[in-house]
Write a structure and sequence with these properties.
8 strands; UDP-N-acetylmuramoyl-L-alanine:D-glutamate ligase; nucleotide-binding (chains A, B, C); 256 residues; 48% helix; metal-binding (chains A, B, C); homotrimer
Chain lengths: 256, 256, 256
Amino acid sequence: MQPDRLDLHALHHFRTRSPLTHCMTNDVVQTFTANVLLALGASPAMVIEAEEAEQFAAMADALLINVGTLTAPRAQAMRRAIEGAMAAGKPWTLDPVAVGALSYRTRFCQQILSLKPAAIRGNASEILALAGMSAGGRGVDTTDTASSALPAAIALARQTHAIVAVTGEVDYVTDGQRTQTITGGDVMMTRVVGTGCALSAVVAASCSLPGDRLNNVAAACGFMKQAGSVAVKESRGPGSFASAFIDALWNLEAQA
Amino acid sequence: MQPDRLDLHALHHFRTRSPLTHCMTNDVVQTFTANVLLALGASPAMVIEAEEAEQFAAMADALLINVGTLTAPRAQAMRRAIEGAMAAGKPWTLDPVAVGALSYRTRFCQQILSLKPAAIRGNASEILALAGMSAGGRGVDTTDTASSALPAAIALARQTHAIVAVTGEVDYVTDGQRTQTITGGDVMMTRVVGTGCALSAVVAASCSLPGDRLNNVAAACGFMKQAGSVAVKESRGPGSFASAFIDALWNLEAQA
Amino acid sequence: MQPDRLDLHALHHFRTRSPLTHCMTNDVVQTFTANVLLALGASPAMVIEAEEAEQFAAMADALLINVGTLTAPRAQAMRRAIEGAMAAGKPWTLDPVAVGALSYRTRFCQQILSLKPAAIRGNASEILALAGMSAGGRGVDTTDTASSALPAAIALARQTHAIVAVTGEVDYVTDGQRTQTITGGDVMMTRVVGTGCALSAVVAASCSLPGDRLNNVAAACGFMKQAGSVAVKESRGPGSFASAFIDALWNLEAQA
């Protein structure tokens, strides 16, 4: 995948497969995550009670685990969902929000890391912390650049056999051997809550598609970068940007 | 009510009564639901702790029970709220999200169905499942058309004495004897999360109004169809559609 | 601070300090609250499990406690967070949503009132109830004007040593001795869910800034009033208003 190049083949694939994506995500980004998935043609569903989460993870095409507003009951339900997904052979993706900075979620993420995630998507601080190379940033913000965390991402991919996406001004997606670089987007994406979390949901969905998973995850990053580049031209601030971003995802082919 | 005809009398009634609507709804659609109710002149409130839910349901004009992100504590609080509403003679409305597909919520909804809901609003798969006529779809999506579920809706209305709205490309609202048909809207409404759930909140609010409840619920469906028809002309994708939809609800009279 | 005058010095201060604001707020307004803080240059984070809430409150610059969708586990986590903030010398702000109308949250807020909040932001009914001068309104709506609650606000400020902001068509901010008045804004702000709750988050963040706290809280109210005045001119209803409001916060200096 070349920088700044939208992967129209992967996009077409994504839209026609319409992956049913089970999102166990944080309370702040649920609506935006669902609307991002809908704009790309996927089918989002949020199911959180432990019994149902396990049942639904087996029915869905993909599972997202995002620990942004983790609680003890949610952690238990997430474990059940991961078990349901694994038993059914469905891929699950981890978004380790603020791991490193906060102890409870750090322990939880380290525990579930052994349950073979298909992909991991985080910012530099989170990937560094998850790889055991840093004590992390001050919460959800990253204090490192994505490139500085690329060695950690590669090490984490080799350790877990997951595709690891470390994202920021530039995104890097690696399987531990090959690394793809995705540029584009705009800094305005950091002034709207949930763009990173929603990207993780798109990554989760993309892991359910056939074909090369590294390519699929890189393509997912590319969808969001491209939409960000388009939306910033249509907006006067982060409010209109958020709407324009969803519109841009909807119209990606036409704008390519 | 004629197809494609906005019931301005019901709308005026809705706006001047400004029903205080207690929404116990899912985590994904809370903001959108509140903003839909506000745009129509109603007063939304979300109260979820069991003790408070029971107390508030008695104070509010109407109660919505939406099981989209049901949990065990929430189920208990919902029971208490229904008891509070019933003791105070206030109507409650059920949105049986994904019933049929998931076991825990299916059991819960079957149990509370005996507590005399004033109205039930669901898609075809959900109404079929609730009426015991289908095993349901794959989660929140429906795999049936609303018309195919009309016999189930009529049977469910006769069984429960609730007004049943089975909604989709065309909406059908029935009391088991009479059925009203509401057309209009746009497929874009399915690409924004929460339009169905928000409709259920408007249905709940409309059940608190005096007059014929079948007419009031059909009018509620008509408000949303009309706003969808207007909004799609003002939008370039589901992001701008969501904003335009709220604006259209706000401006319904002027556009009629 | 003069009425209708944007405090550009305070705004610059706010943006350059970028306070990390720990929001324990209700389920309905999380996204909007985060986006308001981001548009003003602050850094929001929602952390809710008790252990993490205590840990994070000590790391953050400011803590917001909003009881809109209070539950028993959340109440326990909020106590822990307040303890964490106090032990680290960080200010916390209370938004007593619907206090007076609902018993459980009223008891909770009266208990935590002794834990020395830096600021309290509510509507007239809530401030009257918290000061023990009223039985409260019908939930989240206020049935009193802010000016009618000014004596209660002054009494509450003297009792708690907090800055008290009682907001509505006109906002009053008092430390019990001095009172500042903030005008502007638009009634459309009451038709978008979360403007009051988001203001409380901005108040919380502003309490972390050096300088006179009364001025800082009044400036926070002024940011929101000014954005509301600008946004209403750019919008056709509450949907476009919500986007325009976020844009206006982002562009406050340019529009001043």
